[in-house]
Design a protein that fits this description.
Layout: H1 2-17, E1 19-25, H2 32-42, E2 47-53, H3 55-63, E3 70-72, H4 77-84, E4 93-98, E5 100-103, E6 125-128, H5 134-145, H6 149-152, E7 156-159, H7 162-169, E8 175-179, E9 197-199, E10 208-214, H8 222-231, H9 234-242
Length: 248
């Protein structure tokens, strides 16, 4: 009986070590499955469990004890805060740089750039909540720098995350400020650049540098360290580029 208990304990420990839980910013939701697939081709025995959400909400969960092993945030501020609180065991490192775009289901004239949101037929503008979503911060910053924010803020429909902003932009809003990475999803191929979407001038907002950290729960886990190295490696970099990100 004692031998059975010992063997069972060893097996459970091995299984636990082969599972990692990763908190992932919502904008990466479109790239994460190809990333997981590529990682598992190298490490087939490591199960990657992903929890998606806005970076602000994921940070709050982590601070409240959520057992995530790694955090792939939408900016550097949230992971740096976790590092400052000794919840992250590594310094934040940039794994990708994101961009924002404007999306409309209806065909529109994007020749005015971001100024299109002033048009009378644009009644509802989908924006990720800037209190929790770095892409929402970037969108608001772009509108302010373009001198449009005060005139259009009454039209905002706030989404909980940047992925929910895509849902709003394609259903409840006339136009939305989304992560450019979402446009590279197979579900979005029907939308055409210049007709349904356009880049937001990157000069209008601070570069969206996205950071990754290993958290306390992942310290010493071979799977967590392997996934961390993979995300910062060349193969993952190519996948990020395929989804419209810039890679350091």
């Amino acid at each position: 009986m004692k031998k059975f208990i010992i063997v069972t304990a060893v097996l459970l420990s091995t299984l636990s070590a082969a599972q990692i839980k990763v908190a992932v910013a919502a904008n990466v939701s479109y790239a994460i499955e190809p990333l997981k697939k590529a990682f598992n081709e190298r490490y087939p025995d490591t199960e990657v469990q992903v929890v998606l959400g806005s970076s602000g909400k994921l940070t709050a969960q982590i601070k409240n004890g959520a057992p995530y092993d790694l955090f792939m945030a939408a900016n550097m501020r949230y992971p740096q805060a976790l590092r400052n609180d000794a919840i992250a065991v590594t310094d934040p490192v940039v794994y990708a740089q994101g961009a924002i775009a404007m999306l409309s289901v209806k065909k529109r004239d994007f020749s005015r750039g971001i100024g299109i949101i002033e048009q009378k037929e644009i009644d509802r503008i989908a924006v990720a909540n800037p209190k929790t979503a770095p892409y929402g911060v970037a969108a608001v910053e772009a509108m302010k720098n373009a001198g449009l924010y005060e005139r259009v803020k009454g039209r905002f429909i706030y989404a909980e995350s940047i992925s929910q902003t895509v849902q709003y932009a394609t259903t409840a809003a006339d136009i939305g400020f989304i992560a450019k990475s979402s446009l590279f999803s197979p579900k979005m191929v029907r939308f055409r650049q210049g007709k349904n979407w356009s880049d937001v001038d990157p000069k209008l907002y601070t570069p969206i540098k996205q950071g990754i950290v290993i958290l306390k729960s992942g310290e010493g886990k071979a799977g967590a360290e392997a996934f961390y190295r993979f995300i910062l490696g060349e193969q993952a970099g190519r996948i990020f580029k395929d989804f419209g990100y810039l890679v350091p």
